[in-house]
Amino acid sequence: MPPGLDGSSSVASQRVADTLRKQILLGDLRPGARIMQEDVAEAFGSSRLPVREALRILESEGLVVLKANSGAWVSKMDLAECQATYKLRERVEPLALSESIPNLTSDDFHRLDEIQREIESNSDVDRFLSLDRELHLITYSGCSIEQLLSMVRRFWNTTQHYRRAYAHLIDPTGRELINFEHRLIIEAIKRGDPVDAERFLAGHIRRTRLALSRHPELFAD
């Protein structure tokens, strides 16, 4: 338990963190938005202590930036930072997938198929983003290297807003391509082929990076 937090404060800080995390990932709190501790504390009927701890949790997840004697802001990227993160994802996530594949189960395969079918029948952007995140994180869930998984989750958190903005621009042909790539990855996982799975995933991430580079307006203030 973090210093200065008793059990009830720890529960309260997690409740605040869960709510703020959801607001950030859903786009209700946008990149660069200031988070006023006193306003959050008032909304939750709590002191500032659990709010401060919640913000530290979110900072560790890449969702919030804390500045000494200044405050807390939702994390924000420019195009160059996003491109760098995607280049890291192209290297890190295939490794996480390769480490994960031997430990995935038939239940995981079944859930991946369920998610992909729903993605293909869905037209709502926020629902797509939620399903897409769940699908990929399941494919990494068998990885036993926690540092690697933590890095992957942080990358997904910090790029969430820009994926959402880009998802609104994807046309039907683009959606078909995403579905095709998902199916290639899932089938490679099912047959226990980490080489193909890594290759398909790296291409999937790279294609999104290149597409984002053609839309610098998504990173404007």
Summary tags:
221 residues, Four Helix Bundle (Hemerythrin (Met), subunit A), 2 domains, globular
Structure description:
The protein is mainly alpha-helical. The chain folds into two domains: 7-74, Arc Repressor Mutant, subunit A (Orthogonal Bundle); 79-219, GntR ligand-binding domain-like (Four Helix Bundle (Hemerythrin (Met), subunit A)). The chain contains nine helices and three strands. The protein has helices at residues 7-25, 37-44, 48-60, 79-100, 106-121, 125-140, 146-167, 172-190, 194-213, and strands spanning 34-35, 64-67, 71-74. Strands 1-3-2 form a three-stranded antiparallel sheet. Strand 2 and strand 3 (71-74) form a beta hairpin. Helix 1 packs across helix 3 (48-60), helix 2 crosses helix 3 (48-60) and helix 4 runs antiparallel to helix 9. The longest helix has 22 residues, at 79-100. The chain is globular and about 50 Å long. Mean pLDDT is 92; it is low at 1-6.
